[in-house]
Amino acid sequence: MSVADYAARNRTRLGGAAVAVVLAGVVAVALDVPVAALFTVGFVERSLQAATPIALAAVGGLYAEKSGVFNIGLEGFMIFGAVNAAAVVALLGGESPTQADLWVAMLAAVVIGLAYTLVFAVLTIRYKADQIVAGLAVWFLGLGFGPFTAALLWGSRNSGRLVSVDDVTVPVLAEIPVVGPILFDTSPLVVLTALSVGVAWVVLYRTRYGYWLQAAGENPEALDTAGVSVTRVRYAAVLFSGAMAALGGAVLLAHSGSFTGTGDTMVNGRGWIAIVAYLFGNYNPLGAGAAALLFGGLDMLQIQFQTAGIELPNRLVNLFPYAAVVVVLSVWGSTRMPAAVGESYESEE
Amino acid sequence: MLNATVLQRLAIAVASTAMALLIGLVVVAAAGYDPVAFLADVFEGAFGDENAVARTLKFTTLFVLTGVAVAVAFRAGVFNIGVQGQFVVGGFAAVVSILWLAPFLPEGGVGGLALMLLGTLAAVVAGGAYAAIPGVLKAYADANEIITTIMLNFIAVGVVGWLVEGPVRGEGQRAPNTDRIPEYVELPRVVYDTPDFSVVGLGVALAVVGLVAVVMMRTRFGYDMVTSGHQESAAAYSGVDAKRTVVATMALSGMVAGVAGAVFAIMIQGYYSDPAGVGTYGFDAIAVSLLAANNPLGVVPAGLLFGGLDSAGSHIRINTDVPVQLIDGIVGLVVLFVAAPELFRMAAARTGLGGDDR
Asked: Would an 8 Å CB–CB cutoff place A138 in contact with chain B?
């Protein structure tokens, strides 16, 4: 679907978005908000970092849902990803883990995540488990076993300081004003995420596998008739979604440098926000990435408010992303789900 | 799951719980603790002495109420994952309204009873209204209620947390708490002489269960709710306004969650603290309801099971060094197995225990 088509079909939505932006502008002028102090280069950098875990999980969840399985357990898989990455870092590096340890840990978190996801995939695809209920179960398992792992390793639900990922600086290019620090002096995980989003778009819309994936969710009978195993496509998509969510959790850990298992854990709703991100992005990986960036930006507003001297309680500013999700879902609510989502498929042969 | 007989459902519930406990024990053993001692601690913590029983019944009261709240919605095909938020909002409303109204009413037994009733009423209204928001958004804006209710949980915890930290913090409270509600506002101690459990509270929970069961099974509204959940087109043909039913279902579910919040605030806490630390009754209630196949009456034994597990958790926290989060993990496993009844049907068919009658 081209941009012009999209604009024609979504006049009210785009209109609503435009009205929201204008309203925000009016409020900013009326309250004399120092806008320039809010939108700094640092803010863009922080927003990109905050968006990475959401975008990665969103791309995974999008693939699963496109294939016909609603993976509502993203949040749980993210918690497992974060705690497993933390555990591997600690086991490899002991008191002073290195960057290499961190990268191995992220890889390990993805591999372990694949193993968990396989169980989820077998239950939902082979044993026809209710996808919603099984997904909720994954969340509960994460909330329980994530902090449990931390308590075993560190004697508390939070890990100590581990290690966070170093920025990569490209010489010369990083000197360019504004663009330089954002693109060429940043976390390598931001670049990795941007690449993943792009590749996910290409695979989904420009390869044969992408068409199979869409057919598995829209018209599994047709795909079956064409001689492609619906079950296999769905297994692949669900495994991919779990791996991406685990990577998202590991990336979250790599940026923050320690595991937090108190309250709703350090993932703190990002898996749920990821689901909204791909709904908001209309099941398009690029749209999901953009939506993740929006939520990442809202998440980081707190720091901007502080530096700009705007007095608002932290506790309330922290709620912006959640409130935004509710607003987005209400305005954008009726995205068209793939037709066969939630239904198990059994080949006739 | 709807086609299963009562006996099959019971078998699935028992098998799910047993498998979850078994995996829990394997994890305990793998983590280097003694699984037999752990199991003994679970039983001792849940039913070991009178204190343990009272503690179990205290948690049971909350799980029965929150479980029924979840069951009302699930039964009608609406996923209310927001019971935790409605529970928090309801409990907070109860405490605040009791604190505000106390000066206008006489002290002592009569005043205490009136305040408890008014506080519970406030909790019911607040819980119902908070649940109606996602109901309206689902009915009229097509917003997925699973996600809106989860977001509203985060928002409820954040806003109430901010309120008890600042605007309604009690005078001279060092922790972020409201003032205590007056001492005469308490449920009478019958049978058990513990400060945070009263059999009356459990009685309230069972009365709510009875009321909800009657509404669901014997009234026009309940019939409309369940049919529009499972046979939307049939319900539409028989003249049911599906949108209004969704809103009413969510509101009813939230009202029950509000009662749970009031019972928690009045019977257990006596004030309101940061809701980030009040316990995840509203989330565990999802497991309670699923285990009960979303049947309001089935919630009672399921609530007792979870009450026992939580009570065992409190005991384990104090008496052993097994991380207590394991209990939360076991709850997750129960939900996972309940989600896949087919797993047990196939297992039963393979092993020749029946189960091919579907």
From this structure: yes
